[in-house]
Design brief:
Elements: H1 9-19, H2 25-34, H3 39-52
Helix pairs in contact: 2-3
Length: 61
């Protein structure tokens, strides 16, 4: 996951569980800001994941 690349896997994991089911792209970016991730790097990683997992592209909760 994108947060793991910045060493904050568990912070994002706990935040996502707390905020579920709001797991759309914009919510994930908001959560990334809450745990002080590099937003540019985070969104680039999300975009790469869309290429790997196209079934998730465009879906939101």
């Amino acid at each position: 996951m994108a947060a793991n690349e910045q060493g904050k896997f568990w912070e994002m994991h706990h935040l996502m569980l707390k905020k579920s089911p709001q797991l759309d792209r914009w919510s994930l970016i908001k959560y990334a800001r809450e745990i002080n991730l590099d937003i540019k790097a985070f969104t680039e990683s999300l975009d790469k994941m869309k290429l790997i997992f196209p079934c998730f592209h465009g879906h939101s909760s």
